Amino acid sequence: MSTLSLMLIGFLSQAFAADAGFVGRLANVQGTVRVDGELAKEGAYLKKGVLVTTENGKATVLLGNETVMHLDRNSKLRVSDYETAKRGESGNIDLQEGGTRTLVRNLGNNVVRKNFFIRTKSAVMGVRGTEVMVTSPAQGAPTFNVIRGEALIQLRPPEGAPPSSPIGGPGREFVLHAGQSVTAPQHVQGHSAPQVQVESKDTGAQQKQANEIAPPPAKVETKQGMDAFAASSNPFSVPLNIVPGQGIGLSLDPLANGGHLPVSISVTGGSKY
Amino acid sequence: MFTRLIHVLTLCVFLGGALSAHADEETNRELAKTYANFHIRNHDFKAAQQILAAHLEQDAADVEAWNLMGLASMEINDYDAAKRAFHAAAQDEKAESRGIYLYHYADVLARSGDVEHAKDALKLASQYFQVAESVKVAQAKLESGKKLPALFLEDRARWSKQVSFSTGYDTNVLMAPNVSLANINPSSVGSPNAMLMAKLNVLKPKFTREIEGTFVAATQYQTNSNASQFSSIYSGLTGEYRENGDEFSKTYWRVPVKADVALLNLSGYQVFNWNGGLQPKFGFRLSGTSSLEFDAFAYYRWFYLLPGSASTENRTGLGAGGVATYKSFWGAWEWSAGLKFDNQMASGSNFFSYSYLIPIQLTSPYIFWDCKFSLKSEQGFINYPSSSYGRQDTIINPVAMLYKKFDSQWTGTFTLGSIMDSSTVSFATYNKIYATVMAAYDF
Question: What predicted TM-score, i.e. pTM, was given to this entire model?
Fold first, then answer.
């Protein structure tokens, strides 16, 4: 089958998924993960507007064919909008709480992505590419890291401000490059420039921190590797004479227990012999 | 020849525009792999092909993605796409895994009937130590229209460590006979328990064979309301040398050896035993999904005989027996059933026995909440021909386990089991149910 026909099939399946209103799938589900409050399974389809909650688990949100959002534990993420288009995919994602390691495809040919946003309670990250980490604790200020590529951070207007309030302007907008991070203040007051410090970090340490949310996928090189990946090995091979709950290693017998071990005296009030 | 030339030219066009991977290309590669792995895990190989094809249009130098594309294509017998993909992967002479890619290329060529080019590819692959042993076997078995033997990689020894903790409840920890239950409060025979276990494992593959060693140390604590507190200390060592064979071989074998020591401390009263055994196993593959296995086992058990006890109660002695097991699949569920014979030649006449058992097992793929499920049961008849009580037992011993892997290190297991021993000797009859939860951490 030619590459062209594969691309065509890909396009058609994409179109089908879009027609059905699906914008993504849920992958790598570990622990309790919910979509709109319902327990979610690996491969679940996601529609616009859904709320993904990881609680004690982790999950990966695959959006279209260009964006992977790995969610840390105790994260809440709403896929407010996501569109697929020939010239690149776009989206608005609300990270209400928790953390994400997010990768977006580099469009190549120096094309700058301008329409993929990760929103937190007090700032918005316009991800231009290609790997970022955002953490937004329930109590505390959100932090934005750029590991590869570039991003634009805009502080959000305070709660209750008129919708027309400007969010850009001096001291309210920052361009972050690879290895940089910024912590946005929890509450922006008035129109004065808030005190925000852009920090430069060691990219290796930054990558390590991001990989704690989700490391890059394992290398799959052989068919056995692929099979092992598709179905993990049998976990029920318990070595030696250990079955949790049974006595360990001792081949006890009721004859011995009932007849010879002194414990029978305490149970029955007397030896049976 | 012409086809190969076309392949080379096509690849040159791809590679000509490709530069070494930059940071952003690394992101694109990881994205492609993440999507492809997701589709592979869901057995949607066409979707994996699509995502990889789109990625490779942009990044033709990603040999790992070409190889993955080839593997996904093989799964749906799309040999043309697989040929192109493995050929492209093998073009990078500096690629760390070039031997693997060449082997895969030879495999797809052989499957599609092009033995001559498959030979060429294998010859090239033979230069790579990682696959050299596999190549020797493949060269001997190469046949038009047939797949090559599965690839086995020369590998270093792999060590793994695990610590686990389990806790649960046993309704009849003292194995009190039914006849005495009327006289006691049932809670006095039940017991909570807690177990701590450490495991060290090493696996050393060598081509189609491997050797594995495991050391386990565990301690378990139990108590019941009659204040009969007791604890067990257990340690065991196993080794196994095995030949897994490949999908072409009709047979496989393994030789497990094990030895363990256990000590039970029961309110200051000690019981000690040790076991050593050998259980060679030979398997015959009847088809791609079914096999017949024969185990022959021999063991020696030493049991501490209490001072003053009659010699008829001595359980020390040799044991020997065999198991014949049929294994197959029911959809994605694996099941097995067998017949087992065990002669325990205990020196004490009350423990000399013949067992005739039927072991069965059912193992599921992931069923719900990413859990795997297993049901094992062993049931049958045990005869004690020289017992002074004329003892004969019927046993049923089912164990159900639910297993969940939370991440690469944490796993949880829930076990629910029962032992039902019905004996012609009233005080040897007992029933129990036990349940435990276990958390294990792998280092």
Answer: 0.56
